Task: structure prediction
Amino acid sequence: MFSAYLAPLLLAAVAVAQNTALEVEAIQAHFTAAGIVPSLLSTFNPSAVATLNFPGVGDIKPGQSLTRAQVGPTPSVAITPANSTVTLTGNFTLAMVDAGPVGSDESQGVTRHWLVNGATVADNKVANASAVAITQYAGPAPPAGSGPHRYVVILYEQPASFSPPEEFSQPNIGVSVFDVNAYAQNSGLGNIVAATYITVEEGQTTASLSATSAVVTSTLPVPSSTGSQSHSGSHSATSGGAAPSQTSQGNSATTLETSWGLVALLAGSFAAML
Ligand SMILES: *[C@@H]1O[C@H](CO)[C@@H](O)[C@H](O)[C@H]1NC(C)=O
Ligand SMILES: *[C@@H]1O[C@H](CO)[C@@H](O)[C@H](O)[C@H]1NC(C)=O
Ligand SMILES: *[C@@H]1O[C@H](CO)[C@@H](O)[C@H](O)[C@H]1NC(C)=O
Result:
């Protein structure tokens, strides 16, 4: 009884130090809840958290619903390693693809909205000083009435042996449908370091969609508000030092709540075992 009472507190204390590790677990849960795993990615074991920041909007939480106007400008991508043993040196490939609404058949290919080779991670951000934009960022433009499309941003390790296929070896190739998994495999990309996604919907949905297309944050346990407030400071380190606009603060809080929801879940299961 006594242990069952203390366990959640102990786990919560550990979680303060491991906030990013929890965010890694949270994004894995998001990808499964949103059907991105296994439909687009057969497995997903990231070693870092990716946070998009759109100019004028702020930091974006996983799965956040945004308008076409909000996602028009190129976002910056903050990358926070899960822990101090994760080093992000060398080159990386950044991709954004349209995985369509939940239930889409991604085996037929996905629309490529962004593909950058030779990016690096500097100051916990994706840097493109020596990068090559095979496809320049092209903001989401889902067909009206086709439902909430999931735009997935993926950062891959790009080993020295990387060798892209002929058709993706030159810059400034326009948006088109391709098989991102085949590309990653054929060009010799390494592990997925981090990934996140947003949803963008145009007009009223007329298509019949899977019930799981609801906002996925709601599928994670409801957090305690005390937890998210008292630890909002520790989260700011993961936002890549972005200027804290009102919007970005709100979004950070929500991301944190997701983490704290997982803490509550883990603490609950742990307490139940005692
Ligand atoms: C650090 O994070 C990586 C990637 O999530 C994980 O595999 C590893 O076990 C972690 N190491 C420690 C010491 O927590
Ligand atoms: C680098 O980022 C800037 C700002 O987002 C963008 O305008 C430019 O096209 C990018 N260059 C490459 C090679 O991706
Ligand atoms: C990174 O890519 C650049 C070219 O974009 C290349 O010159 C360099 O050797 C690569 N570094 C590694 C570690 O692969």
Summary: The mean pLDDT is 80. The two ends are 8 Å apart (CA to CA). The pocket of 2-acetamido-2-deoxy-beta-D-glucopyranose (ligand 1) is lined by residues 24, 47, 82-83, 85-86 (CB under 6 Å).
